[in-house]
């Protein structure tokens, strides 16, 4: 302690925490980062981990350079507050901080609190910022003007930090904090720092030999500030925290500066020849200084307290020999004027003057959620418009197949048994692998399905074993086993498992429907897969027609077939255009958020979507109208064409065969696309389920570690003669504020990595339809606006059971860390169905 006996707040201590794995996993799951950004973010996470170790775990010098490290870490925590959520249910990272004032004992360690909460970490680090400022200020020699200014400024900043924590700590720490973070403690520390700041100003004024009238005001206010600090430190809730030395110094300085203020006022009285008041004030100053000396170290305020005795002796001598004035009654004297020259400086961001956000490329979670909603709206529009195009194209193909077009036109111009259009269709089917390729794809699906099902079974087994272990110990120890039950913690995990079982069940139904469609078209696909000779022999020969290739109906129909082909080509391009539109709406959201704290995602998204997709929607409408016109023309001219034809029984059988082959060609490509999408679906789902299994394993391991810690604590209590009740998880005990939270229940996967579930084809309804979980609801975060999760209301009927365009199933496209509420109808495949409700 310096000769000025300034008091420095002890720092909170913590242990090392690995931020790299959980933060990296969270960012990868929530944010769609490019390869360049991935490297940048990975480097930032590593730097943040190093910065925490340096700021919180390594010894800190009482110097500005050390303060820069701590404030930079705090600034970074504030910067990522709305970008990287750290909580018990989202991205859990356990931070353990010990009480700053608790010195521990022989049998018990220092009181501590462990929480999976980023706001708790910010509160603890901010406390250390204020504490380190007090250390640096208290260590100033106060020999130069700059040193005195530095001390006064740092004490004021420290007072502001503790005042900020006093007002906000209970909102930041979602549990009873350790005593050093209680509002009463922080209020006392803020008052003490303010008093020491005023004292630093007094020392500067005293050394600069300011006029006594100014020194009176400064010293009197210093005494008042110390008196306020003394009262705050004497409250029942906190009076047991302070060292005896602290109480003595604060009491001594309260009395000492009261004496000093009276001394300076006596000097003013001397200038004004008011000997009676001068002696009265000096007499009071002597009394106060003698009492203060009993509390203060020998060299603290020694110069001023010594001067009081000398001034009193000199003034008394002068009055006895010269003035002979009556000494005024001290109680009748006016109170001393005061002047507060310091204040608790508000906490501003950033605290560090050279701060630079390491995660500048990561947008706030609110913006990210808004972008996800925008992507959902955009995906829904793409689904609708692409679905309309596909439905109308399939309708057009079906009508043409029923009319045996264009194969019927080939018969008119050629007597060849195998029409050119069928020959081309057969060549395309064989080039794509034919029926052998479809059979190969069908053979792969069951193994892929079983692999995913086995992963879910193993995940469910781990959860069941953990619950059984917890229930056994709960029955064994009864009320002493008071940690949170497995049912309270594993609900979201079981819902995830149930959701994925529902997805697999839906996919399995889709597989069966694709198989049924394959069987219905097997004969046609087998024929198209044969060589040309075999195909020709399977088609009945044609009879002589009355219609020739020069017929007006034939010419018109050929022209219309050309328009049909143009429509198909145009739609392929239009579908690609719909899927390939890229737009960056983040800047729009950021601008809107800067203008207003309330973000109207719906309005901004709809305006952006209309701007981008308006012209494409018009092209879709035009294409559908053109199809209606062309198909009406085809019907008209085909009726005339049929009237001109002469047919027979053989001709009818040939026409039926050609229609079947044309339909088989369309079915082949549809089935091949379905099977390829199904294979991709199962392959994409596997790593997601593996990650879910790993997170469940991490959760089980954390619960096992928690169980061992709790049993060890119970054994220690038995050894020390306690009942064990005081050491329950989540309860305050003499040596620990310990709260156990699930370590890994962040099982939801963001939209970038989750393949959408596959619905059944529209033509057949499944008897068992597992429920699609309702939209997830976000847990309330302190100080964070709640995003609106957009849920599309329209799901068009598609020709394929596996969506091939973005956003086909936006119900599952939700941000990371949101838990799904219980389904509205029971899912027989979800393990949660047989789990008793807590």
Q: Can you put this structure into words, describing what you see?
A:
Residues 754-763 have a biased composition (Pro residues). Residues 784-793 have a biased composition (Low complexity). The structure is a single chain. The protein contains 20 helices and 3 strands. With 838 residues, it is mainly α. Among the domains are: 210-343, alix/aip1 like domains (Serine Threonine Protein Phosphatase 5, Tetratricopeptide repeat); 420-530 and 670-776 and 814-838, Butyryl-CoA Dehydrogenase, subunit A, domain 3 (Up-down Bundle). The protein has a 3-stranded mixed β-sheet, with helices on one face. Mean pLDDT is 81; it is low at 722-838.
Topology:
Blueprint: H1 20-30, H2 35-57, H3 64-79, E1 95-98, E2 112-115, H4 118-138, H5 145-172, H6 183-207, H7 212-233, H8 244-271, H9 275-295, H10 302-323, H11 365-402, H12 407-413, H13 420-431, H14 434-477, H15 486-528, H16 532-538, H17 552-580, H18 586-595, H19 601-644, H20 649-719, E3 737-738
Parallel strand pairs: 2-3
Antiparallel strand pairs: 1-2
Helix pairs in contact: 1-2, 2-3, 3-4, 4-5, 5-6, 6-7, 7-8, 8-9, 8-10, 9-10, 11-17, 11-18, 11-19, 11-20, 13-20, 14-15, 14-20, 15-20, 17-19
